[in-house]
Amino acid sequence: MRLFNPDSKFMAALTKMADLMWLNILTLALCFPIITVGAALTAKDYMCYKLLKNEEPGITKGFFRSFKQNFRQATVIWLIMLVVIVIGIVDVFFVIGLQGEGTQIVRAVMFAFFFFVYIGCIMIFPVLARFDNTIKGTIKSGLHMTVAILPRAILMGILYLVPILIMMFFGIQSPLIPIVIMFGISAPGYVSAMLYRKAFEQVEAKFYEEHPEMAPETDPVEEAMQAAMKREEK
Questions:
Q1: How many Cβ atoms from other residues are within 10 Å of residue 131's Cβ?
Q2: Cα–Cα distance between 122 and 127 in angstroms, integer?
């Protein structure tokens, strides 16, 4: 049957799902030591972007390569985020306890601010995974990218909240929990890569235009094959 042909779209989709499931397991495993969360999320975003562009043949090898390369910066950024998270939680409880006139406006402003910080934190790791920069430059670029694609960044933030909300409202006994365990981080990461891919490609194109000597070499035959595949998909 053509459906089960190794080159069929059905088999390609199954392979992608298997890759995302394994990527999710790797990410969860490396997130358990709290100190390594930043590096694990960076490696996850690196692999999601590679999977989207069909550029990475091995999930495990690519994941640990990114994990190792970005460990120092990702860990420092993650520790900064932890401080921000603690401050945010304290402020949220403070705002919730406010009473009197105008408190609803204050709460709305505070929650909007913290949600922006939240989606900004999400965006920082893909930026770190894809671009070489200082810690300060990575954080700054992540926040700038968040503003540049704000509607899509908001959607990214919602996607990452879905697994958490499932666990909160349905409990660990829910039949949805196995899906969360298998795809709760990698699936939102993969969809997020779809959302920020165009913005990343624009940044890369501008960089290579300014620094043509650093542009990666391209294979004309491979480019022709990719163009043909895109025409077939259309």
A1: 16
A2: 9
Q: What is d(CA 106, CA 49) in angstroms, rounded to the nearest whole number?
A: 38
Tokens matching residue 212: 């043509």
Euclidean distance between CA atoms 208 and 31, whole angstroms: 34
Q: Which residue type sits at 232?
A: E
| Calpha distance 74→58 (Å, rounded) | 22
Instruction: For the chain, give every domain's residue range.
Output: 2-233
> Rg (Cα) of the chain, in Å, rounded?
20
Structure tokens at 121: 């934190």
Q: Which residues, at least 6 apart from 170, have a Cβ–Cβ distance to it below 8 Å?
A: 176, 177
**pLDDT by residue, tens only, the chain of 234 residues:** 566 666 677 778 888 999 999 999 999 999 988 999 999 999 999 999 999 998 866 899 999 999 999 999 999 999 999 999 898 888 878 877 777 777 888 888 888 999 999 999 999 999 999 999 999 999 999 999 999 999 999 999 999 999 999 888 888 788 888 999 899 999 999 999 999 999 999 988 887 777 676 566 554 444 554 555 455 544
- pTM for this structure? 0.85
Please give the structure tokens belonging to residue 118.
Answer: 């939240």
Q: Residue type at 139?
A: I
| Whole-number Å distance between alpha carbons of 159 and 125 | 16
Phi and psi angles of residue 86, each rounded to the nearest 5 degrees, phi first: -60, -45
